[in-house]
Amino acid sequence: MGARVITVTSGKGGVGKTTTTANLGVALAANEQRVACIDADIGLRNLDVVMGLENRIVYDIVDVVEGRARLRQALIRDKRLPELCLLPAAQTRDKSAISPSEMVQLVNDMRNDFDFILIDSPAGIEQGFKNAVAPADEVIIVTTPEVSAVRDADRIIGLVEAEEKGPARLIINRLRPAMVQRGDMLSREDVLDILAIDLIGIVPDDEAIIVSTNRGTPAAMHNHSPAGTAYRQIARRILGEDVPLLTPEPQTGLMARFSRWLRGE
Amino acid sequence: MSVAIKGTTEGLVVTLGEGEWDDVIATLTERLAASAGFFAGAEATLRVDGRTLDAAQLAYIRDLFSTHGGSLRSVVADDSATRAAARALGVSASASRLRFARPTTRPETDTTSGLVIRRTLRSGQSVRHGGHVVVIGDVNPGAEIVAGGDVVVWGRLRGLVHAGASGDTGAWVCALQLAPTQLRIADLFTRPPDAPSRGQTRVVPEVARIQDEMIVVEAWEPA
C-alpha cells in the first residue's frame, strides 16, 4: 500500500506532460499530500527545470538504480513546498539505463514515504514509455486538441489497456475556447468522441504557463492564472473531490469585446 | 516447411509449423541431425505458437535437443495448458508477443468463420482474420481491419478497413457510421471526400459493396 502511483503520458511530444506533472505535483503538495515527482525522461530531463530545482541535482535516478546513491540522497526537496520532492532523470544516459522491473522496484521502495508518486513519461511508445508505465497504479493521458495528438493518445490508451493498468483518465491541454467556438479547433466533445475515456480536466491555453515554466515556478503555485487554477482543480479531483468540470468559455472582457467589434462580429 | 531453426540475437529459435505431430517430429529430428554442430551448446527457444503440446511431447523435444548437445530454455505457446506443461518441466514459458499474427500474405479466405471483437479498436491496433469480422465498438482512426470476408461494425468505423482481402468481390462493409480513412474491398479502394461537410446531417448506417467494378456506399434501408 502507501502511495498512489500515477504516470503522466501522451505518446506525442510537446503536449505538456512535464508541465502537467510539475503542476499536479505542486497542487497536490499544496493540499498537504506528500508528493514525489519522478522524471522518467532519461537523457532529456526537463522536469527539474520546470520545477526550478535544476541547480540542486547531485544524484539522479540512474545513480540510485545502479547503487551509487541512496534514494534519500537523490531526492530533492522543494524549498517552497516541503511536502514536494523530485527524483531527477540522468542527463548523460539514455532510456536503456533502466529496465521496467528496476523501475517497479524503485517505486515500491518509495511507496511508504509518500501519498502520491507522479511519473513524468517521455514521449513515444518505446522503452522509456514502458519504464514509466510499468510501476503505475493509474495513468493520466495528456493531449492537446489537435488531430495528431489525439491519434497518438488513442494509441497510448490502447497500449495502457493492454498492460491492464486500469482505465486511463484524460487531460485536454492548451484548449483555446475562442478557436473552438469558431470551429477552428477540436472541441472537448470531438476529443472525447474518439478517445472515449474519463475526462479529469481541461487546461486552457495560457501564456502564464510559458512564463512560469521558464522561471521554474509552476503556475499552480499562483492563484491568478487560468491554467494554474485548472491544475489545482484537477488535483482536487484526483483527491476524490467532486469539482464541476466546466468547458472554458471565450474571454468576455472589455478587450475581447473590443477586438470582436473591430473584426465586425 | 514445418520446422524452422533460426539464430537470433536471443539465441536459437526453433519454430514448429503446421502439420501432423509425427511429421513435424520427423522433420525436426532430421533438421537437428543435419545441423548437429550448429546446435551443440545452444540454449534454444521453442516456438509452438498455436499448437497444443502435452508434457510428454515437450519432454520428447527437450530430450531431442539434449541428445544434440543443446538445451531447451524456453517455450513460446499461445495455449496456456502447453505453457503450464512447459513450466512443470522446469522450462520457462510465455505467450506469443504479438496478440495478432502479422501475416506477410493475405489471410486465407474462410467465410465459414467469424471473429467477434467486443471493444473499441484504437490507433495502432490491427485485426486480420480469414473470415468475417464483427466489431461491437468503434474502429478509431489509425486502426485497421483486414478480413477475408465481410466486416460489420456496430459503432463508428473511422479507421482502415479491407473486406474480401483475398479477392472476394462479393464482400461488403457496413457500419452504424461509415467514415473510414480508407475502405478497400477485394482489389478496389476508395476514400471519403477530402473535405467532410461540417455540421453533418443525421448519421445513418451505411453499406459499402462492389457494383459494376466500383465501390458503392448506400444508406441502409429496411427492406
Describe it for me?
The complex is a heterodimer of chains A (265) and B (223). In chain A, 40% of the residues lie in helices and 16% in strands. Chain A is globular and about 65 Å long. Chain A is α/β, with parallel strands linked by helices and 265 residues long. Chain A has an eight-stranded mixed beta sheet with strand order 3-4-2-5-1-6-7-8, sandwiched between helices. Chain A contains twelve helices and eight strands. By secondary structure, chain B is of the alpha/beta class. Chain B folds into two domains: 3-94, 2-Layer Sandwich (Alpha-Beta Plaits); 114-219, Pectate Lyase C-like (3 Solenoid). Chain A binds chain B through residues 151-152, 154-155, 157-159, 161-162, 183, 194, 196, and chain B through 99, 120, 122-125, 138, 140-142, 158, 198.
What key attributes describe this structure?
heterodimer, A: 265 residues, alpha/beta, Rossmann fold, eight-stranded mixed beta sheet, 12 helices, 40% helix, globular, B: 223 residues, Alpha-Beta Plaits, Pectate Lyase C-like, 2 domains, six-stranded mixed beta sheet, five-stranded mixed beta sheet, 18% helix, elongated
- The total number of structural domains of chain B is 2
And the CATH topology of the largest domain in chain B?
Pectate Lyase C-like
- Order of strands, main sheet of chain A, comes to 3-4-2-5-1-6-7-8
Query: Spans of chain B with pLDDT under 50 lasting ≥5 residues?
Result: 97-105
Number of helices of chain A: 12
Give a brief description.
The complex is a heterodimer of chains A (265) and B (223). Chain A is an alpha/beta fold.
Layout of secondary structure:
The complex is a heterodimer of chains A (265) and B (223).
Chain A (H helix, E strand, L loop, with lengths): L3 E6 L7 H14 L4 E5 L7 H4 L10 H5 L5 H4 L1 E2 L6 E4 L12 H11 L5 E5 L6 H7 L4 E6 L3 H16 L6 E7 L1 H6 L5 H8 L2 E7 L2 H9 L10 H13 L15 H9 L3
Parallel strand pairs in A: 1-5, 1-6, 2-4, 2-5, 6-7, 7-8
Antiparallel strand pairs in A: 3-4
Helix pairs in contact in A: 1-11, 5-6
Chain B lengths: L2 E6 L2 E6 L4 H14 L1 H4 L3 E7 L5 H13 L3 E7 L2 H9 L3 E3 L19 E4 L8 E4 L2 E5 L7 E4 L3 E7 L2 E4 L9 E6 L3 E4 L2 E3 L15 E6 L2 E6 L4
Parallel strand pairs in B: 2-3, 3-4, 4-5, 6-8, 7-9, 8-10, 9-11, 10-12, 11-13
Antiparallel strand pairs in B: 1-2, 12-15, 13-14, 15-16
